[in-house]
Amino acid sequence: MAIQPTKANPCSLPTNSETSTDSEKYLFYVIVLTDPTHKLTFKTVSQALPVSWLDIPHEENEWVELKMVQAIKLAVKTIAQEYVWHRMTASEEHQQESQPLEEKQE
Length: 106
Known about the structure:
Helix content is 40%, strand content 24%. The chain contains two helices and four strands; from the N terminus they run ββββαα. It has helices spanning 62-98, 101-105; strands at 2-8, 26-35, 40-45, 49-50. It is elongated. The termini are far apart.
């Protein structure tokens, strides 16, 4: 699993005439889960957090750390749930394919 922090403006991409400042940007975490054994890759993006939160002094930013951890946990739980669901349904599909035709018709 890879977790990569990324800054972006989730609302719209700036055009040539617009300039984007850090106050308009948000922090996302891009999460990629790869299972090379089963040739599976899952990707997701965490909830957006304002980049301006990173400027809060260290002594006052405990709540910022908690919010970031919560955003990462939620994204990881989401991608893990997708992975488990895919593995379970792929297993069920494989079992159905291997059943004899007579059993499928019943």
